[in-house]
Amino acid sequence: MIRKATRAAAALAAAALLLTACSGGGQEAAGGDGSGGTPQTGGTVHMLQNADFSYLDPARGWDGGVNAFYRLIYRGLTMQAAGDAEDPNAVVPDMAEGLGTPSPDGLTWTYTLKEGLKFDNGDPITSTELEFGISRAWDPEIGIGSPWLKNTVEAPADYKGPYQTGDHPGIETPDAQTIVFHLKAPFPEFDNVVSQVNAVPFPVGTGAGDEFIKDVIASGPYTLDSYTPGSSIKLVRNEHWDAATDEVRKAYPDAWEFEIGLEGATIDERLLAGQGTDVNAIAGKIQPATLARIQSPELQERAISAEAYCVTYMGMDTTQAPFDKVEVRQAMNYAVDRTSLQTASGGNQLALPATTIIPNAVNGHKDFDLYPSEGDSGDPAKAQELLESVGLGDGFSFTLDIRSNPIMQAQAESIQQALAKINVDVQLNVIDTSTFYETIGTPSQMHDAAITGWCPDWASSSSTMVPPLVDGRVITEKGNTNIAQINDPGINARIDEIRAMTDLDAANVEWGEFDEEVMALAPLVPLLQEPSVFLPGENIAGYIPNTSMTDLTIIGLSDPSAG
Questions:
Q1: What are the angstrom distances between the C-alpha of 443 and each of 330, 447, 480?
Q2: What Å distances lie between residue 257 and 46, 348, 379, CA to CA?
Q3: What is the spatial distance between Cα 407 and Cα 288, in angstroms, rounded to a whole number?
Q4: How far is CA 258 from CA 10, 172, 229, in A?
């Protein structure tokens, strides 16, 4: 039987989403792990992957795969706790001595940095370097990643980051160890904001233009040894990283090697065979066609399943016809055949129908289905009725952006077939995976609709699950998360109302209600929740996969000399 990734009991009740790791700064694990071994210090872990990372620069990149990579090379004030910690969903201090101290009015947050922090060149990391690195999020060209800093920290509308404007007016550095953030409004979850991947330090004056496209200045346990875009990345130890200052990252391997550009089927064949260095390899989820081949006791023992913490959805540009009409968007929700989508995605072990934005496993989820159909196979008659009500009974055509990924292409073909029943012609625009998120996050480049996915940015609440997709005030020219471009005053006000709640449990209930309110306007079509099965190499230890982002910092090898 395929094993499920184990989680602490506290985590099962919480909204799990991002990472998995373990606490403590030593170099040897105290016990077992999700892959049945005990990680030891040394050796090289190999990552086999289809696509390159979006960006080495954390101000630009912001998706599950690259976020996990960033955790190996960058540090911030806080971070997601280790996955094998008592509560892997907690936010814990990283470079800061403790979590932030808010002012009584909630408008300022103060952090004190640990002593002895250094970059990979040996230069010290102080509050000055942290303020500089964080302020890069406001650069109009570079700051296309996580929006949370820009959404919460006070800054003039014309502030354009350190290269164009200078020091950040909303961030104070009264001394080398202290940094103070001034917020636009109280935000009780601000510790989560500074755990985002773009809230990291860099030496003052570095990183302008494309400087970090092929290079990094590391603050974490590893630094870049070599990078051939689209082909390979090798990380080696950062000799200036001090484990005594890092209570989360274990950094067992001496090196990491990422092999890029492999077909999914090739990756699976290599993991199944487990020859040579592939005993020390990990990868993303296995392909649907591989699932039936994991039958032997040895493979069953290695395989690990992880539940879905993300939603796959089709976002529609509500500013352009025909998706500017709510009836058309509702018709799309009725018309899709989620059973067909499930089959296209590998069956019920790898895909479950989604009718809500917040997945079942995430805290705040509310069960509802505003656009029901028998067997989740779609209701073309109801969809046709809605189209006829707005004069589109003869159908229309639109272009759908998708990733160059076999599963996503199969999902898109399922949508094509379902919508053809209501005379809607879907043209597919296939985009390379490494540039997909940047493309659809640029409204001028995205077409009529896109299939993509969303995971919550932190685990303590559902506040990051729905709002980024529908808040009209976060629509940007680049790095846009509201790909539906819906800007509804009622939605915006409701977001503010719930965010102001200090009782986060009560707020989670409201986020579930908000999910249903948003879906009444149908800016997107929830398609699937996608649990996954992973097959690590037999010598991998400390591996606890996550469908949103697996923590690489606790992974090691049972026998560093093997492979």
A1: 22, 8, 7
A2: 5, 33, 48
A3: 8
A4: 33, 38, 11
Region for 179 from its dihedrals, namely left if φ exceeds 0, alpha if ψ lies in -120 to 50, beta otherwise: beta
- CA 138 and chain centroid, separation: 20
Q: Which residues, other chains included, contact 114 with Cβ-Cβ below 8 Å and sequence gap of 6+?
A: 95, 96, 97, 245
Rounded Cα distance, 102 and 182, in Å:
10
DSSP 472: G
Q: Is 449:523 a contact under the CB 8 Å cutoff?
A: no
Write the pLDDT tens digit of every residue in 135-183: 999 999 999 999 899 999 999 999 999 999 999 999 999 999 999 999 9
Spatial contact of 371 and 418, defined as CB atoms under 8 Å apart: no
Confidence tier at 24 by pLDDT (50, 70, 90): very low
In 261-322, beta strands by DSSP E: 281-283, 304-306, 311-316
For residue 452, the surrounding DSSP H or E stretch is strand 449-454
Nearest to 6 by CA among 94, 86, 98, 101: 86
Q: DSSP code of 285?
A: P
pLDDT of residue 7: 41
Place of tokens 């077939």: 417
- Residue 396's pLDDT band, with cuts at 50, 70 and 90, is very high
Phi, psi at 231, each rounded to 5°: -130, -55
Long-range contacts of 502-507 (CB under 8 A, 24+ apart): 502/188, 504/188, 504/189, 504/460, 504/461, 507/461, 507/463
Query: How many CA atoms, within 13 angstroms, populate the side-chain half-sphere of residue 101?
Result: 10
Q: Is 364 left (phi over 0), alpha (psi -120 to 50) or beta?
A: left
Q: Where are the domains of the chain?
A: 311-529
Dihedral of alpha carbons 478, 449, 366, 518, sign:
positive
> Are 543 and 395 a contacting pair, CB within 8 Å?
no
- Cα–Cα separations (whole angstroms), residue 234 to 204, 255, 263: 26, 7, 20
- Superfamily of segment(s) 311-529: Dipeptide-binding Protein; Domain 3 (3.10.105.10)
Q: Give residue 456's pLDDT band: very low, low, confident or very high (50, 70, 90).
A: confident
Contacts of 369 (CB under 8 A, 6+ apart): 355, 356
Q: Is pLDDT of 11 > 80? A: no
CB 178 within 8 A of CB 113: yes
Task: For Cα atoms 395, 338, 269, give the angle at the middle one, nearest 5 degrees.
Answer: 120
Amino acid at 134: I
pLDDT (tens digit, 9 = 90+) per residue, 86-119? 877 789 999 999 999 999 999 999 999 999 999 9
**60's tokens:** 């630009």
**What interhelical angle do 504-521 and 326-335 show, nearest 10?**
100
pLDDT higher than threshold 70 for residue 232:
yes
Q: For residue 1, is pLDDT > 70? A: no
E runs forming strands in 29-113? 44-49, 78-80, 91-93, 101-102, 108-112
| Long-range CB contacts (within 8 A, 24+) of 274-279 | 274/537, 274/538, 276/563, 277/44, 277/46, 277/563, 278/46, 278/48, 278/537, 278/563, 279/537, 279/538, 279/539, 279/540, 279/562, 279/563
